[in-house]
């Protein structure tokens, strides 16, 4: 019996040469092609791109062959390309969707198969389930046109996705003031697809951009995985201090996520970054529009929504929920706890490059460094917010654990009164200070995640420990 492929948040990820093989990637491509045919997209163009992981370009070529074999035309990127650039190419080229060979921030052993729709954004959960159901059990059921034949007849065309994206970014933000500001910007590319973008975008002025980890190295030295959080960014934080940089910008392996370090080499967690970006758009740029957030990200957004009179929509975890909601509401900003942020005027996809540029523009417009920006935000909100998370492997039946969590019905967590239980995605206990504690099961591995946010710094660990008890992990 063939290996069963299960789609997660964005598609499928697996261990290279174990389950992630050329045959299984081709089977995924056949399932996506069948889905697109059902959608009435026969004969249309599909964008295919890839990251810098081991053999990603060859897996991308295999996908292109399968799509061509199903009668589609394929725009294949001419090299490793950031996820947001691939997403923009879908719109720019008028394609009906995209396949992206990337495992994003996963360990170096992995690779992935992400799918996108005609907006360049994530396909909704129902669509992902349908694609999964259409994946054939056997490689013999995959239609395929050889790469040579497909390029000869024009079914596969290699193209430059970078230049149109950069022209698009220059319409969204005036880069000249950033170039002229004389900043020193340290960029940690995490050996990934974001390499070269900030130097190219900010060249020609007094601002200096220093890149590290900007070559291809699929083993990702100096980090466990290309995920823009400590300890993976510790080398970047150290380099920020050594180079007396004003800010650290970190793009993950496929450059759809953004991490930030301040001028003192201290990490600014991703919930605070999301609140800073929303505050920048609302206050500094004076824009208005809906905010879309997963329930695992910051309550600061709810408070900003009240202050500026804009709706805030909470979704399940993953951009498969965020992207459709952003499209539906023409949202100003959408984001999640993992450090992925999307913006109106761009495609409904996380964009670590644009997020980094917006942070630089925030600094230039206010004349403040990251620590000053954070203090301004907290002064506006009237409180400082603290966040942490614990991931723990678990054994046993998930349904039994879910029943036990529901039965626990705690009145207080970490000494704070529980005001509400939300079960949109996992179990989120709202707390009296406007904070929360969330227990969620990973969609891809036997791990339970316990998250919290609170205005009480001294209660963070108590909240997390109570969460572990409620989850039956202590």
Question: Could you give a short description of this structure?
Answer:
The chain contains 16 helices and 21 strands. It is globular. With 474 residues, the protein is α/β, with parallel strands linked by helices.
By helix and strand content, what is the structural category?
alpha/beta
Show unreliable segments: none
- Beta content comes to 15-25%
Let me know the CATH homologous superfamily of the domain at 11-164. Answer: Alpha-D-Glucose-1,6-Bisphosphate, subunit A, domain 3
Radius of gyration: 22 Å
Shape: globular
Number of strands: 21
Strand order of the main beta sheet, please?
A: 1-5-4-2-3-6
What CATH architecture label of the domain at 11-164 applies? 3-Layer(aba) Sandwich
CATH topology (level 3) name of the domain at 11-164: Alpha-D-Glucose-1,6-Bisphosphate, Chain A, domain 3
- Residues in helices, as a percent range: 25-40%
- The total of helices stands at 16
Mean pLDDT: 95
Biggest sheet: strands, sense, closure? 6 strands, mixed
State the distance separating the first and last CA atoms.
39 Å
- CATH class type of the domain at 11-164: Alpha Beta
């Amino acid at each position: 019996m063939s290996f069963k492929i299960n789609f997660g948040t964005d598609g499928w990820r697996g261990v290279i040469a174990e389950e992630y093989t050329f045959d299984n990637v081709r089977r995924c491509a056949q399932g996506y092609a069948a889905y697109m045919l059902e959608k009435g997209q026969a004969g249309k163009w599909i964008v295919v791109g890839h990251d810098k992981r081991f053999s990603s370009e060859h897996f991308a070529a295999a996908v292109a062959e399968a799509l061509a074999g199903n009668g589609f035309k394929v725009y294949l990127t001419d090299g490793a390309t950031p996820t947001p650039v691939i997403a923009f190419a879908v719109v720019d080229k008028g394609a009906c969707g995209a396949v992206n060979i990337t495992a994003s921030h996963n360990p170096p052993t992995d690779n992935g198969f992400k799918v996108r729709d005609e907006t360049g954004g994530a396909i909704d959960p129902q669509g992902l389930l349908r694609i999964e159901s259409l994946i054939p059990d056997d490689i013999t059921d995959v239609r395929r046109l050889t790469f040579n034949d497909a390029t000869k007849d024009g079914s596969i065309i290699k193209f430059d996705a970078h230049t149109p994206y950069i022209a698009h970014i220059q319409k969204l933000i005036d880069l000249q003031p950033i170039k002229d500001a004389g900043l020193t910007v340290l960029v940690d590319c995490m050996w990934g697809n974001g390499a070269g973008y900030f130097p190219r975008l900010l060249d020609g002025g007094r601002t200096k951009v220093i890149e590290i980890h900007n070559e291809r190295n699929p083993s990702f030295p100096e980090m466990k995985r290309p995920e823009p959080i400590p300890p993976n960014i510790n080398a970047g934080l150290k380099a920020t201090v050594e180079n007396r940089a004003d800010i650290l910008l970190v793009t993950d392996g496929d450059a759809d996520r953004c991490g930030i370090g301040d001028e003192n080499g201290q990490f600014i967690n991703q919930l605070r970054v999301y609140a800073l970006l929303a505050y920048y758009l609302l206050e500094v740029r004076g824009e208005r529009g809906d905010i879309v957030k997963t329930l695992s990200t910051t309550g600061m957004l709810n408070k900003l929504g009240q202050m500026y009179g804009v709706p805030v929509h909470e979704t399940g975890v993953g951009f498969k929920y965020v992207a459709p909601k952003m499209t539906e509401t023409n949202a100003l900003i959408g984001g999640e706890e993992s450090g992925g942020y999307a913006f109106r005027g761009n495609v409904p996809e996380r964009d670590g490059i644009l997020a980094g540029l917006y942070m630089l523009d925030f600094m230039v417009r206010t004349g403040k460094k990251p620590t000053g920006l954070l203090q301004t935000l907290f002064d506006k909100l009237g409180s400082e917010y603290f966040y942490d998370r614990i991931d723990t492997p678990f054994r046993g039946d998930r349904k039994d654990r879910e029943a036990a969590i529901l039965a626990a019905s705690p009145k207080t967590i970490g000494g704070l009164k529980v005001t509400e239980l939300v079960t949109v995605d996992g179990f989120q206990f709202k707390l009296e200070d406007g904070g929360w504690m969330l227990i969620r099961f990973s969609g891809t591995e036997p791990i339970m995640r316990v998250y919290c946010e609170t205005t009480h710094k001294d209660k963070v660990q108590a909240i997390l420990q109570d969460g572990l008890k409620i989850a039956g992990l202590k």
